[in-house]
Amino acid sequence: MAPEGDQRSGLQPYLESLRRELQVSDSTLLSVLLTLLAVALTLLVWKLIWGRKSSRRTVLLVGLCDSGKTLLFVRLLTGTYRNTQTSITDSSAVYRVSNDKGSSVTLIDLPGHESLRLQFLEKFKAAARAIVFVVDSVAFQREVKDVAEFLYQVLTDCTVLKNTLPLLIACNKQDITMAKSAKLIQQQLEKELNTLRVTRSAAPSILDGSTSSGTAQLGKKGKEFDFSQLPMKVELVECSARGSKAEEGSADIEDLEKWLARIA
C-alpha cells in the first residue's frame, strides 16, 4: 500500500486540472450572466422609451388664423365641408387612420390667434405624438414672417425637440390659383428661419421673449439652416381642405391622411 504522501502527490495534478476547469467555467458563466444583464437592461430601456411614445396619441393641428386648420380637422373626421370660424379654444376628437393596424389618434385643433397659440401649444405639447403645421399657401407671401416666427417657436421648443415629434407642414388652399407650391414655401421658410436664428442668437433672451430652459438652438451653428438639420423629421405636403368644388366636392387631403397613417 502506497504511503499517504505519495497518494496526495498523485492526486495533485488532477486537483489542479479540476481547479483550472472550474475557474474557466466560472469565467464563462460570469460572461454569460453579464451579457444577459446587458440585454435585459437594453430591453427595459427600449420598453420605457417605446411606452412613453405609445402613450402619446395626440396630433396637434397648429398654424396662424385663417390657415384652414379647422376645416382640415372637420374634413379628416367627417369627410364633409362645413363653414368654420376663428375659434378661441381647442377642439378634439378621435380619428381612425387608414392603415392595416386600425390605429387611432386624437386630433386637437388649436387656436391660431397670436395671443392664444403658444398658450395652447404649451398645454398639449407633452402629450403630442406629432404636429401638423398648417400654412395658407395663398396668403403665404405676405404672412411669411409671421408663419416663420410661429414655426421657429415650435421647432425650438425643448419638449418638441426632446420627444423628436414628427412635423408635417401642410400647404393648404392649393385649389386656389395663386397658391404657392410646397417647394417654394420650404425654400422661403428655411431662409426666414435662418434669419430668425441669427437675430435671436444676437439678441438678449429678455428681448426676444425666450428662456434658456424652454427653447434651444435651431439647426447647426455655422451652416445655413435647412430642415434636415433638425432631430425630428419635417415633411411638406400640398393639400386643399376646401377642395376644388367646396361643399359639393371632396377635399384633396390624401397625402395628409397617408402621413397620419404612417405616424399613428
Distance between the termini: 84 Å
Q: What is the string of helix and strand elements? A: HEHEEHEHHEHHEH
Q: From the alpha-carbon coordinates, what is the Rg to the nearest angstrom?
A: 29 Å
What's the total count of β strands?
6
Describe the strand arrangement of the main beta sheet, using strand numbers: 2-3-1-4-5-6
Strand content: 5-15%
Which shape, going by the Cα principal axes? elongated
Helical proportion? Answer: 40-55%
Structural class: alpha/beta
Low-confidence spans: 206-212
Largest sheet: 6 strands, mixed
Q: How many DSSP H or I helices? A: 8
Multimeric state? single chain
Mean pLDDT: 84
Brief sketch in words of this structure:
This protein is an alpha/beta fold. Helix content is 48%, strand content 14%.
Structure description:
- With 264 residues, the protein is an alpha/beta fold.
- The protein is built from eight helices and six strands.
- Strands 2-3-1-4-5-6 form a six-stranded mixed sheet, with helices on both faces.
- A hairpin with a 7-residue loop joins β2 and β3.
- The radius of gyration is 29 Å and the shape is elongated.
- About 3% of the residues have low confidence.
